[in-house]
Design goal:
Blueprint (H helix, E strand, L loop, with lengths): L1 H22 L1 H6 L7 H18 L1 E6 L9 E5 L5 H4 L8 E6 L8 H7 L3 E3 L4 H17 L3 E3 L18 H9 L3 E6 L15 E7 L9 H26 L7 H11 L7
Pathway: Lipid metabolism
Pfam families: Acyltransferase
GO biological process, one term: phosphatidic acid biosynthetic process
Amino acid sequence: MLLVRSALFNLAFYLSLIIQMIIFTPPYFLMRRKAAWVIPKNWVRSSNWLMEHIVGTTHSVEGLENIPKGGYIIAPKHQSFWDAIGLLPYLDDPFYILKRELTWIPLFGWYVNKMRMVPINRGSREKVMPAVLEQTRQQMADGRQLIIYPEGTRRAVGAEPAYRYGIARIYSELDVPVMPVAVVAGLFWPRRKFLRYPGNIKVHFLPPIPPGLPPEEFMQRLIDETESAVDKLLVEAVRDNPDLPLPKLARKRYEELTSEKPVSA
């Protein structure tokens, strides 16, 4: 049954994406840029609805009161495709720094360009970074929220943290708060996997780290606060979903945190 539900959800998810992009393209490009966010945000909501009613996966959010006003950096834990889209409805006017090649994809690239994302060229980071920072600074001046995944790519649940120093440089250059976000979506929508598992994806928006800290202190706070909250969510997820199959690293981390074996082991 899990295989069937996962297949149905994946089919519905991508069909919904294609159909909505086609249907809503005219109004999307006629609307003002910020107002047009309603279309991709509603697609995310409809995707969550599909996941709940086909797979049995819901999500809950804590810490919305921690979201600051105006421009800031949001730094989510990245384990799944879900946390690449699932947070969008809770943000006012977000943007990403992304590979320039993504803006060349027909239709998708047009949607991306409409939202004034910051494309980055391939090549030396030292050569392209000043231009990226300048574009990012301009977006921040409009009160937007930069989404950065501090580890750069999706990490397996329970894997050792691998935070990159680039976020510290951007934090120092932009002089804005950074809001960590703890989430363990990879337990329910695993990276590089076809299956989707029922349960509740918990998201916790943590208190923002204020601007102006030395880069090393900022990085340590970001890692400590994020990983501590992620560990807590991991333990809660395992205990709330005793039948959830755990990947090896997630099981190992759970045992380190609790000194007990999960029921599904």
